[in-house]
Structures are given as C-alpha cells and as structure tokens.
Amino acid sequence: MVKKNIRLEVMQSIEPKVGEFMDSFLIPIDDIWQPSDFLPDPKSDSFLNDIEQLREESKELGYDFWVTMVADTITEEALPTYEAWLMDVEGVNQHDGKQNGWSKWVRAWTAEENRHGDVLNKYLYLSGRVNMREVEITTQHLIADGFDIGTDRDPYKNFVYTSFQELATNISHKRVGQMAKKRGNALLGKMCTIIAGDEMRHHLAYREFVKHIFGEDPSGMMLAFADMMKKKIVMPAHFLRESGGSIGTAFENFSNCAQRLGVYTAQDYIDILRKLNSYWQLDTVRHLNDEAEKARDYLMKLPDRLQRISERMSFPEDQYHFKWVEANGTL
Ligand SMILES: [Fe+2]
Ligand SMILES: [Fe+2]
C-alpha cells in the first residue's frame, strides 16, 4: 500500500487560496516602495549634497548600532538561501507547469524581500561608517554556507519558522529605525520602519498559512510546532562568520550586541511565542491525538518556562570587535 502523504494533500487543499493570500498580504509591484524612494537620487543636482547630509547624520550612530545594521543587512542579503530552501518544501512545486500557487507565493515573497537587502546595502555603502569589503565577504560566506533551520522539507515546520522569523525581523528593523530617528537620522528611521512594515505583512501571511493547516491537520500541525520550539528557532544568519573566521563564530557575538542594544532580546523570543500561541488559539484546537495533546500542553506552558529561565540569564558586556565596523563610534 502506498503511504499517504498527508502534508502534500494538505498543501494541495490550501493551494487554491494562495492567490487570495497574495492579494491580502503582498503589495502589487507597481505600487510598493522601492529602494530609490529613500536614497539620494543620482540624477539630481543635489545628489552630492544629499550624500554629504546622509554621512553627517550617520556620524551620530555608534559601534553597536552599526554592527547590528550590518548583521541585519547581511541576513537580508542571504535571500538566495531562503528562496532555494522554500522552493524545496513539500507542496511547493515550480516544475508542474500548472503555475503552482505556493511557488508563485515563494517568488512574490522573495521579490518583496529582495528590496530589503538592496536598500540597506546601498545605505551602508553611502554612510561611510562600515568596512564594505568585510561586509561583502561575510555575505558571500553566509550564502555559501547556507543554513539549517531544522525544518527539513516539512511545510508545517517551515511555516512555523517563517511565522516566527518574520515577526522577529519586524521587531529588530523597527527598533533600529526608532534608534536612528531618536539620534536625528530621519531617513534611516523611515527606511527601517518601512522594511519592518513589509516583515509584518509577511508574518501575518505565514501565521495564516499555519492557521489553515491547523484546520486541516490539527495533530500534525501541533506536533510540528512543538518540535520546532523544542529545537529552538535559530536565526537565519546562525552560520554568520567574518573573513578568516570559522562557520557560525560571528553569530553569537552579534546576538550579544543585539541583546545589549535591546534590538532583539530573549524577551522578544518569548513574546513572539505567546503571540503565536494566542493567534493559533492553541487552547481551543480540537480533535488532537494523545501525542498532540501532550505537545499542546508543552507549548502552552513553554512561555512561562522560558520566562523563568530568561530571568536567570546574563549576557557578556565586553564588546567583541567586528571587522565590519571601526570602533570609532559614539555609542
Ligand atoms: Fe526582510
Ligand atoms: Fe522577512
């Protein structure tokens, strides 16, 4: 007997709705913002003056800030890894000739995401505050190293991951934007805030996909969610390294930096989990098998458990020195 592939069936049964999801959660290409909307216009007579101003404003921001900006940029620049990964997920099919809805989604999502690395990279280049060559080497390493987020080709796990991760990036871009604005850098503030807006729409879409899967296969979805949380949601840039460094070594130092700056913290991780639990209404999911009941129990208790652990955690204060940024900052 051929074993039924439930995940594939579930993905196929939701697929007719993907067009609607795209209409609700993505913005038509001709209407959405582009990097040029936020950067000095090279055709304008004021171009050089505008760059001068951009560079002046950048001087107000310090070392930790730039390290975080660089790591956020590199994370966005590794988009080829994410698209390749998602295209390989069960039910996403770019080869069937029938314009599979899920592969259209992945392409359209990628196309929106691509603008983030583009605008951030150009801004970093113009700011004069970072060592671009080191940044570029790290980006090339990260794409070459790929990633392993523990989701396999499972759509359920992948959509848990993206639901989580899109909200995490929303938070960090938003905070970076607020900091820039506070320091008088209105342009960078606006740029990061608008990127954060994209991440929020993407988060809303992925959490909707998961909600639909809960409707079709509640036990399978609950088990996949619990499995992802047991492994912990790793960041997409967890393999981050600097020139000459070994795989993953730069990541921990960057996390400490983001934690110190308050851009993305252990508390945010817990808050995201609480939000997901509540949106997916874990407490009211019905028709669970015994194993999935246990998984639900684990997930419902997890935020409080993590909260207790996080209260005991401490983070190193000493600043590791990245090659990306000269330690000449003000913060
Ligand atoms: Fe992004
Ligand atoms: Fe994103």
Describe the overall structure:
By secondary structure, the protein is an all-alpha fold. Helix content is about 65%, strand content about 0%. The protein is globular, with a radius of gyration of 21 Å. The N and C termini lie far apart (about 65 Å). The relative contact order is 0.15. The mean pLDDT is about 95. The structure holds fe (ii) ion (2 copies). The site of one fe (ii) ion has 5 residues, from helix 8 and helix 9.
Features:
331 residues; mainly alpha; 13 helices; 0% strand; binds fe (ii) ion
- Determine the strand fraction and express it as a percent band: under 5%
The number of helices is 13
Main sheet summary: none
Tell me the structural class: mainly alpha
Give the end-to-end Cα distance, rounded to a whole number of Å: 65 Å
Tell me which ligands are bound: fe (ii) ion
Secondary-structure blueprint:
Blueprint (H helix, E strand, L loop, with lengths): L5 H9 L3 H8 L21 H12 L4 H15 L1 H9 L13 H27 L4 H14 L9 H28 L3 H31 L1 H14 L17 H13 L4 H14 L10 H23 L19
Helix pairs in contact: 2-9, 4-6, 4-7, 4-8, 4-11, 5-6, 6-9, 8-9, 8-10, 8-12, 9-10, 10-13, 12-13
The site of one fe (ii) ion (FE2) has 5 residues, from helix 8 and helix 9.
Q: Gist?
A:
Helices cover 66% and strands 0% of the residues. The chain is an all-alpha fold and 331 residues long.
